[in-house]
Amino acid sequence: FKNPDGRKAWQLIDAAGCRGLVVGDAQVSEMHCNFLINRGRASAADIEALGEEVRRRVRETSGVELHWEIKRIGVA
Q: Given this structure, which CATH class describes domain 9-62?
C-alpha cells in the first residue's frame, strides 16, 4: 500500500493487527507487513479480499484510508 502523508503503511497495518493475517492462501507477510504474499495457491480474489480486509482494519483502528500501490486490472 502507498504510504499516507507523514505515515508508514507498514506501521498502520501492524498496529491494526494484520501481520500474518490470512485469507484463502494469501497472507500479510510476517516479515514485511506491507507485503501480501501467495502461500502457494492464492487466487486473485484471495489477494483482493486480503488487501480489502487490511484496508478495513486500518481504517477502523486509525481512521487512515490506505490506497493500493499496485494497479489492479480486471475483476478478481
A: alpha beta
